[in-house]
Amino acid sequence: MGGGNEASIQKSFKEISNMGERIHLTRNIIMRAQHLFKSVSNSKALRGRSSDDIIASCVYIACRQEGVPRSFKEICAASKVNKREIGRCFKLIVRSLEMNIEAVNSDDFIARFCSRLSLSDSIKKLAKHITNRSIELDLVPGRSPISIAATSICIAVGVFGKTPTFKEVCECTGCSESTIRQLLRFIMPYLKEIIPPDINCSGIIENMKC
């Protein structure tokens, strides 16, 4: 990462700000990422690691700490850093600074994805309900929060007979269509158990846009 001198740190701070602007992060998140970067630099625990890797990982961690997590794919797109390197660097930072990072859950992503897809509050509320019930019934063990969120949104959209298409959900969430379809095979047989009884879901198969 270099000598960690002030000029180098200020240059990295600027890159963190630029990355934050690219993915529309708040000033608080940017400042938290900058503070974290300086802590990592001062600790010298990641000496030899690329500054770009550390910057991307600090932004990823700051987003999670502020309760607005971004996926590895989103950070990769904003930073051009390999997903594997961000993951490795993330673990090194957490371990070296003895940080306690709360696990992300699907609800953290649903509101943002629904907003980007211009979906109604009713669809957002139903998607969250589907996610929580699917987890309670252990229908999606070991699956990533993002893939569960994406699948729940697809089901909620199908219930209400609205757009977007699978393709649009995939583009928004970064999930592959095959991943969503695989999760649908696990969840759909239990549809009546995860959809509130006051919502008619009889036409969901016809409504879902493939």
From TrEMBL:
Chain ranges of the Cyclin-like domain = 14-95, 108-189
CDD domains, per database record: CYCLIN_TFIIB_rpt1
The keyword Calcium is annotated on this UniProt entry = no
Superkingdom is Eukaryota
Please provide, in alphabetical order, the Gene Ontology terms of the cellular component aspect for this entry.
Answer: nucleus; transcription preinitiation complex
Q: What InterPro entries has UniProt attached to this entry?
A: Cyclin-like_dom, Cyclin-like_sf, TFIIB, TFIIB_cyclin
Q: Which GO terms describe its molecular function?
A: RNA polymerase II general transcription initiation factor activity; TBP-class protein binding; translation initiation factor activity; zinc ion binding
Kindly give the Pfam families that the UniProt entry links to this protein.
TFIIB
Where is this protein chiefly located? nucleus
The record's subcellular locations are: Nucleus
Which GO annotations describe the biological process of this protein? transcription initiation at RNA polymerase II promoter; transcription preinitiation complex assembly
What's in the keyword line of the UniProt record? Initiation factor, Metal-binding, Nucleus, Protein biosynthesis, Repeat, Transcription, Transcription regulation, Zinc, Zinc-finger
SUPFAM superfamilies reported for this sequence: Cyclin-like (SSF47954)
By sequence similarity, the record places it as follows: Belongs to the TFIIB family.
Q: What is this protein called?
A: Transcription initiation factor IIB (Trinotate prediction)
- Which species does this protein come from? Henneguya salminicola
